[in-house]
Amino acid sequence: MPSQSSAGHLARCLAWAEASGRLHAACQFAARLDGRQVSLELFEQFRATPEFGRSLSARVDPYHDSDSCGDLTLIDAGGEAVVFFDPDHQRVIKLFAPPNDGGFGYVLDQGSNGRWRIRGGSLVEALNRFAWFEACFVSGLELDSLGARADFLTLSQPFFVGRRPCEDELEEWMKACGWEPWSPDTESAVVAQQTWRRGDFVATDVAPRNAIITEADNKLRAIDFVVTRLSDEQR
């Protein structure tokens, strides 16, 4: 993965996606959705939480065809991604598509004041973050597709049945994996309280909601931490 967010690196990412058959137009993703099911889910979200429903509708609309009969159904949505379920492959598909606070995925970095923060990342920054996360935690996360206009990103991840760990279970597991709590200079409560370091890597948003203890084997697995790699100057 590229190490910087530049036009050249973005061009190389898109060229690689095209060569590997992962460069898709929005209509190609829309064709994979069970449009009727997504419409029903959007209606339920809108009825239960009107403001959230409007926001979700606006984010999904460019990638949604209500007449399609694909396999993907809407199951969740958060600050970063809209999440769909692929029952044929027992995987979740995460759609990252600005405008939203998370950009193409939250990233951890130092601001101009030297303090650490979480902010919405560019496409290349997000790809780095997800590659670093998978290198550190091996969750089965894969690149599903890139938007042909660099306007969206979809990731694929195994669907696990299980329960969220408690804070003590998660802390014990992180330490067993060689991570240590780290408190960098920050104004963010998440970064201050949920950040760990192992060598050159830093992981934040390390919280029970972003991990799972699977029912099949009772093992704890990370699902969605925000990971970065320290530069020479930051070490």
Estimated share of beta-strand residues: 25-35%
Largest sheet: 6 strands, mixed
Q: Which stretches are low in confidence, meaning pLDDT under 50 for 5 or more residues running? A: 1-5
Overall strand count: 15
Explain how this protein is built.
The chain is of the alpha+beta class and 235 residues long. The protein has two domains: 7-158, no CATH class; 162-229, no CATH class. Helices cover 31% and strands 26% of the residues. It is built from seven helices and 15 strands. The chain has helices at residues 7-19, 26-30, 35-48, 50-60, 123-137, 167-176, 189-193; strands spanning 23-24, 73-77, 82-86, 91-96, 106-110, 116-120, 142-147, 153-158, 162-163, 180-181, 196-198, 201-204, 211-214, 220-222, 226-229. The strands form four sheets. The protein has a six-stranded mixed beta sheet with strand order 1-7-8-4-3-2. It has a four-stranded antiparallel beta sheet with strand order 10-11-12-15. Strands 9-13-14 form a three-stranded antiparallel beta sheet, with no helix packed on it. The longest helix has 15 residues, at 123-137. It starts with 6 loop residues before the first helix and ends in a 6-residue tail after the last strand. 31% of the residues are buried. The model is unreliable at 1-5 (pLDDT under 50).
Summarize the structure.
With 235 residues, the protein is of the alpha+beta class. Helix content is 31%, strand content 26%.
